[in-house]
Input
Amino acid sequence: MRNAVGKMVGKTLVALALVVTGSAQADDVVRLGNLKLAHFGAVSYIKEIAPRCGIRVEEKIFAKGLDVMQAIIAGELDVGATASEAAISGRAGGAPIVVVAGFARGGARLVARPDLKLANVAQLKGKKVGVTRGAIQEVLLMAELARHGLSADAMPGKDVQLVYLPFADLNGALLNKQIDAMMQSEPQSSQAINRGFGMEVMKPYGTAIGEPVRTMVMTEQFYQGRKPVAEKFMRCFVQATKTFIDDKALASKYVRDVVFKGQISADDFDDAIANSPFSYDITPQHIQATTDMMVKTGVGRMRAPPRAQDWVRTELLAAAKTSLQIK
Output
């Protein structure tokens, strides 16, 4: 009888141990939303080294940053990688997020058909310009057009006719002469130039935004309620980014072979990252400047623009960089 009871208790304890172990493992899973762009490659690499960081990262790829925000609002993600304008629009729309890091700079380029020989933004008058709706590229395009006194709309009748397309479709539209120019991301803009159906007009970094910084955001629940896991994730992000900065050959191979599955060349990657280098940092001032420009240009149409100082939180980033001796 005692042996039977003992065996039963033993089995119960084993079962409880398995439940506890499984629960601990589940608590260490981080659900990450990301985009398929060259300068988002270090974020993808986090999942490869995550076991060494004591976590498991489940990555889901989205077509654009606003889709990442929708998934966060739906409770499907813990962390999201996106451009700043999507994070700002998301926060304004009720997404419970905080900005915790910046993982790349730049990543935008105005590219035109070579046969048009466009040399500046002013020459876009009367032209069709492709851009992805709601992307940071739209914010920069509208800011540059305003600087040159040009009006723009998707409907004909303005100085510039906007054609809204996903990043993946803009190059084809330029190649087939359905648009005259595009404000494109990387590596697609580099591809268009390297393959001869596009030429650079400008890099749009002369506005108050400067070089746009891509943002890493966490949900408030993850940031506050799962702080130890959030800290592990942040250290893993810093490690992945440092690896890509230090080992350009590894970064190139990973992005070309794993992220793009051979769809871009080594030259495409090199040119893309030259225009969108990997980084760590972000400031409330940059997010506020981007917010102000969005309000000025009407991109996002926010009723209540968020104040950057209320939701930019870089304490985890600073701690991770210190622990890894990165300045």
Summary: Residues 1-24 have pLDDT under 50 and may be disordered. The first strand starts at residue 29 and ends at 35. DSSP finds 13 helices and eleven strands in the chain. The two ends are 66 Å apart (CA to CA).
